Amino acid sequence: MAVDEHSQDTPAEPPLPPPASPGPQPRRTSLRALLRTRPLPRPRWRTAHWWVLGLAAAVHTYWLLTLVALRFIDPFTTGVQLERRVKSWFSPAWLRGASYQKRSEFVPLSRLPAHVAHAVIAAEDGRFYLHHGIDWEEIEEVIEDAGEKGRITRGASTITQQLVKNLYFTTHGNPVRKLAEFTLAPMADLVLGKRRVLELYLNVAEWGPGVFGIEAAARHHYGVSAVRLDRDQAARLAACLPSPLRRRPARMTSYAAIIQERMRLMGW
């Protein structure tokens, strides 16, 4: 049997080495994982938004708590009274040595003659018992009147709005204060009720330089207690409320007559 010479003389080829392992591959991170582990920074406007909401909530909580307290406690001062006190420090009279004197004495509504409250309602807020702090009908009439005449000739503030202005704000008119009144007046109407709103307003309203409340007004202008005011005197004092630092009861003859006619038409 023939033997292949090449098979005996040629050495066998060594086996090929196994292929090298590719090694660990870099791990791919999904976009969802990136967003979960690396949150994007919150926009500044969102942070400011939460600060504004928190401040508004704190202010409204303060208003609510103080209104609840005012159901049972008479205020010892108001925002307008503090405003007048601060202004007096820079007045010529104060610089000459004259001191500012605040006159105020709280009188329960039950002690006042009915025509005192009726005169103020007829002069300031004829639908006082029909609205809930904001008189939307009056606002609509004022807007229509302003559209016809080209300017605003009268206001539409209710007694409740004027009360919260006296309690919490100043006499300076600005949109921020008006906006606050529109949120605060319904709250005051709900928490205090009509009778307490009227009682507080009659006792904190301004009736002259340093004169606050119907009792101080009656003594300052007529030299009598508020419980002794007659119908004409009450109407004249009510006529001064839109501009208490300039108007005087003695000069309010025509407007006082209008107020008394309104009272008559309203059954008072």
Q: What does this entry look like structurally?
A:
- By secondary structure, the protein is mostly helical.
- It contains 12 helices and 3 strands.
- A 3-stranded mixed sheet has the order 1-3-2, covered by helices on one side.
- Helix 3 packs parallel to helix 9, helix 8 packs across helix 9 (about 175-205) and helix 11 (about 230-240) crosses helix 12.
- It is elongated.
- The chain starts with a helix and ends with a helix.
- The mean pLDDT is about 85.
Topology of this protein?
Elements: H1 5-9, H2 31-37, H3 44-70, H4 79-88, H5 92-95, E1 103-104, H6 114-124, H7 136-149, H8 159-168, H9 175-204, E2 206-208, E3 211-212, H10 214-222, H11 231-239, H12 253-265
Parallel strand pairs: 1-3
Antiparallel strand pairs: 2-3
Question: What would you say about this model in short?
Answer:
By secondary structure, this protein is mainly alpha-helical. It has 12 helices and 3 strands; from the N terminus they run H-H-H-H-H-E-H-H-H-H-E-E-H-H-H.
Low-confidence stretches: none
Give the termini distance in whole angstroms.
Answer: 148 Å
Secondary structural class: mainly alpha
Write the CATH architecture name of the domain at 103-265.
Answer: Orthogonal Bundle
**Number of helical elements:** 12
What is the subunit arrangement here?
Answer: single chain
CATH class of the domain at 103-265: Mainly Alpha
CATH homologous superfamily placement of the domain at 103-265 = Biosynthetic peptidoglycan transglycosylase-like
